[in-house]
What does this fold into?
Amino acid sequence: MDKVFIRKEMIKRREEISLAQKSHMDREILKRLLESKYYNNSNVIFTFVSFKKEVDTHNLIGQALKDGKKICVPRVINKKSGMVACYIDGLHSLTPGCMGILEPGENAVLANKDDMDLIIVPGLAFDRKGGRIGYGGGYYDKFLEELPGDIPKVAIAYDFQIIHDIPMHQHDIKVDLIITDKGIYYC
Ligand SMILES: Nc1ncnc2c1ncn2[C@@H]1O[C@H](COP(=O)(O)OP(=O)(O)OP(=O)(O)O)[C@@H](O)[C@H]1O
Ligand SMILES: [Mg+2]
It folds into this structure.
C-alpha cells in the first residue's frame, strides 16, 4: 500500500464517523493523555491545533492552560522554511492560516525547541513501530527532525488509524507513543 492510497482511505474513514462517535473517542483519548506521566511531567507542551475531523486538541489546550502549563502551536511559514512554534494563551488569539487551520499571528512569541518537553503529533495513519503518515507536506518530518532527541513525541489518533505497516522513507520521523481511544501503544 502506498502513502497516497493510505491517506485517501483514512480521510474517508474519518469522514464516516459521526460527531457523537468522534466526541466519545476524543474524550477517551484526552483522558488517557491527561492521566499519562508524559502529560503530568510536562511544563511546555507543543501541540497541533485540530482541524475538521482530526482528534480534538482544543480541550487539551484549554485543560493544559488551566493546569498551568505553557502551550505552543504551529505557525506555517512556507513550504521551504516549514513551521515554527509560538506560545498561545488560548484559542481566542488564533486565526485561520495555511489550509484554514487555526494558527497564531505574526506577533506571537516564538517558542524555543529546547524548552518543549512534550510534543503532540497529528497524523493520518500510524503503525505500532511508530511509523507515521501525515498530509504529505513534510512539515512535521522537518519540525520533528530539528527537535532535541529526548523530547517525547506522542501521537494522538483514532484506533482505526493504526495499520499493520507504514511505508517509511529516510526523511520520515517516528513517534515514541500513540494514544488512541482504545489504548496506548509504546513504539
Ligand atoms: N526534513 C525534511 N527536509 C526537507 N524535505 C522534507 C523533509 N521531510 C520531508 N520532506 C519532503 O516533504 C515531502 C512530503 O513528505 P511525506 O510524504 O513524508 O509527508 P508527511 O509525513 O505525510 O507529511 P507531514 O510531515 O507534514 O505530516 C516529501 O517530498 C519529502 O521529501
Ligand atoms: Mg513523512
About this structure: The helical segments are 3-16, 19-35, 37-40, 58-66, 139-145.
